[in-house]
Amino acid sequence: MWKDAKKLTAVAGILLLCASVVAGCGGKDALTKVKIGEVTRSVFYAPEYVAIERGFFKEEGLDVELTTTFGGDKTMTALLSNAVDVALVGSETSIYVAQQGSEDPVINFAQLTQTDGTFLVAREDSGTFSWDQLKGKTFLGQRKGGMPQMAGEFTLEKQGIDPHADLELIQNIEFANIAAAFASGTGQYVQLFEPQASIFEKEGKGHVVASFGVESGHLPYTVFMSKQSYIKKNQDTVQKFTNAVQKAQAWVASHTPEEIADTILPYFKDADRAIIVSSVKRYQEQGTYATDPILDGAEWNNLLDVMDNAGELKERVAHDVIVDNTFAEKAKSTVK
């Protein structure tokens, strides 16, 4: 029995040693969890999906959990309530939080897209298009105060159209239901993201006639942001996150629409590959995908102009108040 006891003790010791070694290895190689909330699922965010699928986040030691939160208000609520660590959403939402006098402001730290991502889709194909054709028509726009709607109104006014007087503007439909409303017969024109715009073209439900991204210029349209408290506590994680974004942006800039589409297809399981390729190509050609995560002052001021034009800006929030480019600048200079 004594020998059996000694054997059991020895086995137990070996098992404990193995467990400690495994735990030690696991601790060394463990990935840091980061929860991302994206405002919608769109080809518009291709670099984000590339960063996940090509393993750029994992290379930086991060394990990202992606949730689609559908709508800027819902995304910001998720961030402020700590349901997510990082939000991918329009910079205007961080300005709204700042205007409310938050003690823990939301900080923009890595830009993903630099133009509006919506397109003007007409129900009928007139052969040639001019913006005057919208006058007197029903236009199915986006949610009031959201970046798509503000950029849309900015573009319409730039084209000499008063969106509240020259056409019937509908903007009380939930973001996720806008495409379905148009498909069911509401409106003669609609403002849509890809791939929905291309899907409607293929199905004969509409025709892309103009790009709001081209017309409204460079904007910090979609940016990764976190609460200031999170960034202060997790600076190393935020830097690694931004490095992964930079890697993805460089990869997207140097690859074809077909290669990008094949990488992001898992995020659009019910979509036709040709539609995804077409959508990526449109965004690439108009320079929508930012080539680095830096949010510069000129883009910020254009955003403020767009918000001011929409009547959504109480006061101009300075660029350096809720934008921190230190992570993006380091990523751009060090990531190859």
TrEMBL record:
Signal peptide from the UniProt entry: 1-23
Subcellular location(s) of the protein: Periplasm
InterPro entries attached to this UniProt entry: SsuA/THI5
Keywords: Signal
Keyword Membrane: no
SUPFAM superfamilies named in the record: Periplasmic binding protein-like II
Family: Belongs to the bacterial solute-binding protein SsuA/TauA family.
This protein's name: SsuA/THI5-like domain-containing protein
Lineage, uppermost ranks: Bacteria, Bacillati, Bacillota, Bacilli, Bacillales
